[in-house]
Amino acid sequence: MTVIIFVPDLPEFQPLVQCARGMHSCTVSIARNGYWKIESPRDLSFVRKDLGLGPALWNSALSGGFCGRLVAYDRNEMTLASEEATK
Predict the structure, then answer these.
(1) What are phi and psi of 12, to 5 degrees?
(2) What is the DSSP letter of 84?
(3) Burial of 80 per CB tally in 10 Å (0-12, 13-18, 19+)
(4) Does the predicted TM-score (pTM) go above 0.85?
(5) Which domain holds residue 16?
(6) Tens digit of each residue's pLDDT, the chain (87 residues)
(7) In the chain, how many domains are there?
(8) Any idea what the CATH number is for the domain that residue 18 is in?
(9) Residue 59: CB partners within 8 Å, gap ≥ 6?
(10) Which of 3, 19, 27, 74 is most buried by a 10 A CB count?
């Protein structure tokens, strides 16, 4: 199973989308219905300060939904893993 994040198609979230595009294990699908789709067969990790996102945007980064499980999500780091990783 893969990790999937749906990111709102808003200019404020472009740093997250661009970062995912730079990851070799990620596939970023064109925005549809107002959301970008970021997929990875591996864990996904992002660091807020590296993306230049303020706290409000960071806290709403997963507002579009996701498939997987949160391993870490604090003020500065987010890591999501496949749900199968626990089985």
Answers:
(1) -65, -25
(2) G
(3) buried
(4) yes
(5) 3-86
(6) 799 999 999 999 999 999 999 999 999 998 889 999 999 999 999 999 999 999 999 999 999 999 999 999 999 999 999 987 555
(7) 1
(8) 3.90.56.10
(9) none
(10) 3
